[in-house]
Amino acid sequence: MKTLSLNKVNDVYFDKLFVSQNNTALSAAIKAKVLLVDRFTMPVISMSFSQLQLLQKDVILIEMLDNVHDLSVMKHLNCVIYVKPHRTSIAQVCAELALPHYSHYQLFFNNTVSKGDLEKIALADEYEVVNQVAELFQDFSIVNDNLFTIESCIYAGSQNATVEESLSLLSLLLSLSKCPVIKYDTKSLELKRLALEVLYYINSNSNNNLFDDLNKNNDTPPTLLILDRKHDPVTPLVTPWTYQLMIHELIGVSRNVVNLGQEQLTLSETQDAFFRESMYLNYGDLTEKFQKHVDDYKKQTKQLSIENLKTQDLTELKKILTRFPEFKKLSNNILKHLNIISEIDKQISAQNLWAIGELQQTIVCELEGHQQIRTRLMDMVADASISTINKVKLLVLYVAKFPKNPDMEVFLAKLNDPITTNPPPTVSQILLIRNFSRHFRVRLDAAGPEPDTNLGQLFSKNRIKIQQLFNTNAASTTNRMPKNDNIYMQYVPRLSEILALVTSRDSPAQSRESSPQTQDLALLVPDVVASQYGDAGAAGTHEVIVYFKGGVTYEEARLVHDLQSLTPDINYIVGGDCILNSEQWVEKMCDEVNGAREADQPDRRAQLRDLL
Prior knowledge:
Strand order of the largest sheet: 6-7-17-16-9-8-15
Largest sheet: 7 strands, mixed
Number of strands: 17
Distance between the termini: 70 Å
Mean pLDDT: 83
Strand content: 5-15%
Low-confidence stretches: 446-480, 607-612
Shape: globular
């Protein structure tokens, strides 16, 4: 049974906002509604509900609270306000209620609101237009049923950024009705701060009964696993080969919207059946499924031909005609995915990704000997048809796999050659390649297939067909994942190994013996969990909520989807403060290396002064 479902959360909150009996609290004669949102809830709404869904529930207008002073007075409309209980939003709500533009109001907060803020709102409601005040818990955005994001960029630079981030995680836990133990990577001070903030708020909110009895039907408590992206810098760099991943990597996705030239295309797991069935398919299976999708459409529309319509009786004709909107929707869906798949295919050819992807897998999984890899990489770096960013990614992967190598200056000289690399690499990219091992922790020894598979000799890049590339054999498992005979999908993210440890039924001592990595995870147990379960860290868990500080990838969402299908008795969701593709991650790593370098400069100057 699936107990962690973000789409179910979404459906429940949609009912509470727009469908439930709450509407009877408003003026019965007024059905049409305005939705007022702030900068925090706008992305939540845009990713959760389609415009058609809102229109079907009489929401005819969406306005931003930032523009409260520019709103038109429309007393013939009711208003639903959905905001984060942030000081700026509370002030804007008070300003709106002091001079109301609409007839009556329902006020929803996407997280817990303080008593002081409620008192401010009550004082501002002099005209008594507020019919309902309620707390929902969706201070995060739902991407897939198993993938969420927290808009931490909104708090970037704020002194309370960690507090705000922890409150968003708490809203996620409350929306899922889970009170977990907390595990985090001990080598990150940032993660420790975040984990302690979450623990503090769970313990303090236990006094308000928010977290009481949430685990009453569970034999073991859920686990909130907080990880640092910097401790697995490889996963975002490896070229992906499944549909949703390729879209983000090769085209780009922002809040489920794909910008394709002049066109904006929306991808929704709940609204688009083809996308839902194809999002985790590899490239070969995707093209086959799309062809079937087109063939089904042709069969369905064949009956709409003039000759067919002439032979139908009136009853059958009426049934066919009523399906015209459905056929139109299907036609638009086919055109949308045709445009996306065509652009993916174009990018694969233009960037020579077949060769790059194979070499990436060969490096990170060491499918060939070091000398063979070095020779192939040298040829790739000297190839003028390969883009600069792809050369940089290959060299970073090489450094990650072989940190002690004497050839780096030779590679960098090739990379800096203006004849073969245009535009030239930036100073930041060169610094990243030189200093990667100093700033990022990498474990690549467990990645890749079993040693005896010898996949490096099974495939030749000059003789590969799509059907041969994408052939998965699930007969045996390594790290609980199916063995994959596809050379482009050998790499398994580090998260797989961590989840295997977190869900293991072995005792902590046995886990430490089987893998020293358990020593990297600290355990925090909230009071309410300790009182219910005692030694909560002794047994494996059935539910894992993973949060990546620094960014999650669609590859990790695909991983937990595959694990869910392999072990249906264990439930997973994963998220982060953003969703990364490889170029975004290279930029972040460059910023990390540059930031550390700039921080070191004053110390070096001080040392020079001391010497002088």
